[in-house]
Amino acid sequence: MNQSLIHYGIVISNSVDKKAFIHHVLSKKCIGALGIFNAYDGVLFSDLAIAEFIEKEHRHHTIEITTSENRPLRTFSSGERRKLFLEYCLAQNPDYIIFDNPFDHLDQQSRIELHHQLFKLSHSISILQLSHQKENLLSFIKHRGSVSESSFVVSEINKLIEPQIIKYKSDFPSSLVSFKETYETLIKFHQISVNYEEQTIVKNISWEVNHGEFWQLIGPNGSGKSTLLSLITGDNPKAFGQDITIFDRKKGSGESVWDIKRKIGYFSTHLTELFKRNHTVEQMVLSGFFDSIGLYVKPSGLQQQKALQWLDVIEMRHLKSNYFNRLSLGQQRLVLIVRALIKQPPLLILDEPFEGLDIENTALVSQLINSLVENSEITIIYVSHTVEKTLAPSHIYELIPTQDGSIGQLKLEG
Ligand SMILES: Nc1ncnc2c1ncn2[C@@H]1O[C@H](COP(=O)(O)OP(=O)(O)OP(=O)(O)O)[C@@H](O)[C@H]1O
Which of 76, 111, 354 has most ligand 1 atoms within 8 Å of its beta carbon, as the pocket-test mutant? Predict the structure, then answer.
């Protein structure tokens, strides 16, 4: 495609079936402005492509991209995965690459570096960028458009009607599960370290999270944010033998992982990476009551009612019987966020809740979080690489990488 390099930036909202649109482009069925891509072979760089790759490695017990490290892509942090996957895409020597929200999961420095890298790349390869937000379109891409929901035709961006930020008036549904116990110290880490073989990931972390606090956890890619969260949720055996107090109880004093999970609502963009079952949207929301991913027990009528009320909040009741797997990634993430908070747990953990959301859904999730902060006693920890102007965490904990693993510091104390 060298002689006719063309770059396109396309704004795509969560209501467009992005999977189908991408398939449409890659299978050379574009009409109109994007028709030029029909003559060429492209590859996809996206969260979905990465998730499928991880699934493939898992299924075949192989390691393809990260052979030098001898561990599967799944064990790398979100930002690391993206960098490694880009190398993999380039190695295939495609005519063009579809970059679906390329800046997601990246810290500020990595965003700047990727912007430079893509600019250089644009001299040798065509780029089709998809972005949920107009502000994230690459500055050097001159052709810009938005894609229509039904025909996938691209129209000029200046003809676009700006999306309206919906103010959600409906009150959020009340809680069904009542947690009678209150906890003073939800999390207390004392001098916690985590190593993988000879590499130290975090070192001597002492961090305390108390009742009703609203925390943001920050740090560059690979600094250990998700690792810390996995120590809390009971998903990391590295917690064993360390001085960790969770819900006022010393870890290792007889509590089961399920005791802990019962009190936590958890969302991560990786939650459904290997999830292949045909569960409906409603079942997925309901599973939040049972701390499972997907529904394996019969819910009560009241629980079903509650799930529908929550689907109303995210305006997805009409999709309740659709298969979760068929939703767009943005819709799946909204469903999983609601799944995390349906039981209104004492502790809510949101690992990158804004990734993959368009401007309207970002506003909705911000409003959901703010409403919980104002109207409940839930303690919240969220991870985000970007500053959400509408959120005002009362505390910020920062991981700072050093040669011997990340150290932690309190950046903002409420
Ligand atoms: N099983 C493992 N073996 C070796 N290293 C691992 C393993 N799991 C995680 N790591 C490494 O631990 C480091 C911290 O990962 P983690 O996912 O906690 O980072 P993060 O701060 O959440 O990053 P990001 O912002 O990119 O999501 C990464 O360098 C990752 O590669």
Answer: 76
